[in-house]
Amino acid sequence: MKQNDVAILLISGFIAAVASIGLSSVIFGNPSERRETVEVVSPITSEFSPLDNRFFNDDANNPTQVIRIEQNKNDKQIFEED
């Protein structure tokens, strides 16, 4: 390569770099202008609110009951095969 070719490559690379920086700021915007509002989350504590009496009362079903699944002892067939 000649010196003239190297100089043209360096100049075109510099122009491409400047153009890409300018174009990226137009496309993506300025970082100081990119602000987003987010919801503030309350911290987690070990305190619990009182349970709802509509669901947690003495007459409610107990979901923690032990359920046993056993073999069916009924030998009769309910459905007849065609």
Structure description:
The structure is a single chain. This protein is mostly helical. The chain is built from one helix and no strands.
Order of helices and strands: H
Tell me the number of strands.
0
Percent of residues in beta strands? under 5%
Structural class: mainly alpha
Count up the helices.
Answer: 1
- Rounded to the nearest angstrom, the radius of gyration is 37 Å
Q: What does the largest sheet look like?
A: none
Which spans have pLDDT < 50 for at least 5 consecutive residues? none
What overall geometry do the principal axes of the alpha carbons give?
A: elongated
* Gap from first CA to last CA: 91 Å
In short:
It contains 1 helix and no strands.
Produce the secondary structure layout.
Blueprint: H1 3-28
Top keywords for this entry?
82 residues; mainly alpha; single chain
